[in-house]
Amino acid sequence: MRVVDVDRYKRIVGRVTCAGVDANAAQVRRGMAWVYDRYATDKTLYRLQDEARSSGRGLWRDPDAISPWAWRSGQRANRG
């Protein structure tokens, strides 16, 4: 793993490579992960996400998929 940043909660933001495969890119390509604008430094991830979305792969099968940050925001609003 290569550390890219540390977020405000002191969590490591990084790039993971396993057996020569970029795990971050592989997850986005398969529709298993969202690209998070706040920490995205590799702009090629957006192309992979667009391809997964247009192909309906993974989470993009759901036309009403909600990003994790939007879901968390809604959960906070519901607590108030």
Descriptors:
80 residues; alpha+beta; OB fold (Dihydrolipoamide Acetyltransferase, E2P); two-stranded antiparallel ribbon; two-stranded antiparallel sheet; 3 helices; flat
* Mean pLDDT score: 91
Number of helices: 3
Helical residue percent band: 25-40%
| Biggest β-sheet description | 2 strands, antiparallel
CATH fold type = OB fold (Dihydrolipoamide Acetyltransferase, E2P)
Helix and strand topology:
Layout: E1 2-6, E2 12-15, E3 17-18, E4 21-22, H1 23-29, H2 44-55, H3 68-79
Antiparallel strand pairs: 1-2, 3-4
Helix pairs in contact: 1-2
Q: Can you describe this structure?
A:
The chain is of the alpha+beta class and about 80 residues long. The protein has one domain (about 1-75): Beta Barrel (OB fold (Dihydrolipoamide Acetyltransferase, E2P)), CATH 2.40.50.90. Helix content is about 40%, strand content about 15%. The chain is built from three helices and four strands. Helix 1 (about 25-30) packs parallel to helix 2 (about 45-55). The radius of gyration is 14 Å and the shape is flat. It starts with a strand and ends with a helix. The mean pLDDT is about 90.
